Structure formats: structure tokens, C-alpha cells
Amino acid sequence: MGHLNLSRRPFLNTRPVTRVALLLWALGGLLLLGNVTLFWNYLSGSTEKREELARMEEQVEREQEAVGRLEARLAGLDLEQQNEQVEFLNRKIAERTFSWSLLFDRLTATMPDNVRLIQLQPAAISGKEGGRSRSRNAAERAAPLASERVQLIIAAEAKNEEEMYQFVDNLFGDYFKDPDLLGETQSDEGDRFTFNVHVTYLPGNPTPDVIEEEEPVVVEEETATPAEPETE
Amino acid sequence: MKDQSEIWRLRLWVWVPALLFFLANAVAFSVYRFGYADQVQSLEAGLGEAQKQLQPQLLKRKELERRLQRAGAAEVAVKQLYDEQFSTRSQRMTRATSEVKSLARKAGLNPRMLSYPEEAIEDYGLVKRSFNFSVEGTYLELRQFINLMEHSDSFLTLEAITLSEASQDTGPELRMSLKISTLFAEETDPEEVGAARRLAQRGES
To answer: What is the ipTM of this complex?
Structure first.
């Protein structure tokens, strides 16, 4: 049996090599794990995203087509003309529902004893119906319903000047606004004054001393709908 | 004594496979990071972009549908108003005339002479027919007539009242001139009128 001569195989420290190798395996393993996860996510995620993107692009295209179709249909309807027609009809309905009884009650309450009504004519109702070509002033546009602010022409007769002025003064009240004495004629005997007054009548104004709850604000839409005509 | 670095050469089989394994994974990571991750990001950006395009389109479509629905409802309401309230001259002219007279008589007034001026409101396919008459009566009778008019189911509008003293000395009697009007739908369908007008407008432009 031969002797083992240890001195012929000098001691070499292999631990650094082993440690480095282990470290590289560990880091490589972590990277592998990360790569597998990323790749898996990429595969599933990108497929899903591609499909979603295709779906969405298709939907955008469909929506664009639908919008085009709807716009063409709307253009064919001539909404401007329809709105004008509805506005006109609403004005006619408002005129139909205008309460002359209430106007008489309120007007007679403002008349002194010796003043007599000769003529009463709401300016918004009378006059030529021009339809589309009718030019409307700012006040009418601001108050689309004729019954909200009615322009009245009143012709009346008074026995003396004081009562005529008293009547005009009384028209600065709750239901009447901005009375304007348009003209007056005195009879030859001097015992009669015939006069014309222009006044804005506010039929919707609440009765004095009655507190009404505030109504909700109505948002105006593009397309108007005619109101149902009412009969009391 | 052998150099310590000699061990790396002698133990190649220990560390080289580990290094290769590490490098391979590092290269794979780099390829993903600089090659594929960008694709994912661009897909996400594309999705965001498509979403941005889709949202206003959806809102616009809803808005257009709402407007169309309202326009349809308005058209139906207009048609109903024309059919049920206005009707045509042939359907309602004599009935409306008779009703005006009947209401006046019920209030104690007796209209003897009436005139019926008419005015076409071509833009809206309507005809406005007026009933103008003068009567003598008391203030109470006038109020009664107004009251009956206001409660009538017909589309009758009182437009103007002119009052004056009666010609004869008959106490509290007044002479009243009344102007009442109603609307008739033109015999043709209002939609046809609108279509014809649109065609004419296009022709002009």
C-alpha cells in the first residue's frame, strides 16, 4: 500500500468559486422567475389588450357611423323650423288661455268712478300673423308666452283731467307696468276726456299679500313641445 | 504554491454554467424590457386613445338621440294639436260659427251681423278665421259671454273688445264690438306643408 502524500496536492480554497457560482445561480433563478412572470403577463395581457383595442376601435367606428346617421336624420327634420312652429303654437295657446275675466277684474279695480272703458286690446294678440317672417322684438323673445307680458292698448273716457291722471297713476300697480299716455282729446264742451294708454299687463303676477313658493327653474331645451291648450 | 486565480480555471465547470445561466436570463430580461415592454405600453396608449375617441362619440350619440326623441315628441304633439284642436275648415267651420253665436245668446247677447275675415298662416299650415260682430248689452252680459268663452272646449280666442255707449237711451246698455278668432289646419297634412316648404327653400338656395 502506497502512502498518501498530502504535500503533493497543495490546499486550494474553492469556497469563493462555489459562493460566486451559487450567487449567480440564485440571481439567474430570480431573473428566470421574473422573466417567466413578465412573459406570461405579456402573452396574456397583450392578447387581451389587442382584442380590447380592436373591439374599441370597432366601437368607435360604429359610433361614428351612428352619429353620422343621426345627424343626417336631424338635418332632415329642420329643427329650426319646427322650433319656430312650436313657439308660434305655444303663443297661440297662451292667447287662447289668456283670462279676460281676470283682466277685467283687475282693470276695473284700478278705474276711478268717472272713468269708462272704451276699448281694450292686447297688442300681442292682434296684428297680422306673419309666421316665419314675423320679426319679434326683444321683449317678446324674452317672454315667449304672450300671456306673461301682454301689451295692452286701453282707450277710456274720463269726466275730468284729474280722474284721467288718477287712472294712469293707478296703472303703476301690481299687475300693470309702465303705463304710457299716448294721446288725449277733450270734448268741445270740456266735460269729457278721451284718452289712450299703452300699458304692460302681467297676468301671471301673484295677488298682492299672497306669498307663493318659488317655482323650480325650467331649463330650456333645444326642441320645444307645444303645450296642451287648457280650458278652464 | 499555485496562484489563487488558478482555482477559477480549474473549477470552470462550477461557475461557468452559473454565469451563463445568469447572463441568459439577463439578456432575456433586457430583450423584454427594451423590446416587448414598449409594445405593451403602446397598446395601453392605443387603448387610452381609443377610449378618448369613444367617450365624446357616445355622448354625442346620446345627445342626438335625445334631440331626435324630443323632435319626434314635438311632431306628435303638433299633429295632435292640429288634428284634435284645430281640425280643418271642412270639419269645424260651421260648428265654430254656431258655437260663437250660441255662447253669445246664452249670455243674453244677440249678434245679428257677423263678418268672417280669414288669414292664411302659410308657414304653419294654418288658417286664422275671425268672427267679428257688434252687439248691445250690459256689462254683466259681456262678462258672462267672456266667461262662457273661457270655459269653452273649442279653440276660440277673444282678441279685442271695443265698448261704447249704446245708440239708444236704454239705461246701462253698451255697444260692444268683439273680435274672436279660431285656427283651422289647412286641408293638406302639416308635414307635407313643411316638406314642400323645405323643398322650396332648397330650390331657392
So the answer is: 0.72
